[in-house]
Amino acid sequence: MKKKYLIANWKMHLNPRQAYRLAESYLKYTSPSQNVSTILCPSFTALSDMSALIGKNRSVHIGAQDCFWKSSGSFTGEESPSILSGLGVRYVLIGHSERRIHLGETDAMVHLKLKGILEQSKLKPILCIGENSGEQKSGSTFQILEKQLRGALDGLKIARQILIAYEPVWAIGSGNSITPVDCKKIADWIRMFLSKRYSSISNSTSILYGGSIDLANAHSIIVNGGIDGLLVGSASLHSRTLAALHGILARK
Ligand code: PGA
After folding, report:
1. Ligand 1 atom with the shortest distance to the CA of 165
2. Which residue has its alpha carbon closest to ligand 1 atom 1?
3. Which of 82, 145, 162, 192 has its CA 20 to 30 A from that of 94?
């Protein structure tokens, strides 16, 4: 059975102490499951303590919310894949729409990040893609996804598992999630596109959905949305909700 993923993106909501407490409480409410990996993504400042807490837990891992593409040097404010690996981080989000919107991150930068991750570390990248509401309304969703996928992946030799999170910008933080039918259409399209253009990674790539996931919609999206897991923002800030989402994935 293909592994399922539950990714908690805590964004800039928690200080290190709050992140630690939330992780502790999540561990208390969750029974380990062989077929679900949880990846907790706190802010950089919490990574070190959180990885000490998680230790060698085989089903819960730590992820970073971003990284830079160089391994070291004069890059004020940045963190490299190799520095993150040294802190016990196993996964890293790249290309999240909030970074594309607020920090001007481009497809070319996402590509460099992916390249840096693959060359410098064993981190598994979680590549975020998704159209905004104008693009969705004008019917250019697949065009945008193709542009973002090609911008990130073209020209790279990828010999490890990557995760792709489809996160429509109009769904993030809006309370307005995708329907399972539409989610399946997009997930099937991404799989088809990968198998045509990047056949060496298409079987091992996990496709996730993110955008206003909560306890009311998670079950139907997991069962009928054609995806391998969830990337969760707001709902992941509550340990019992996060544990309940884990339970839904584990039962699928
Ligand atoms: P949300 O955020 O679940 O609060 O919509 C998801 C994300 O931005 O990854």
Report:
1. 9
2. 233
3. 192
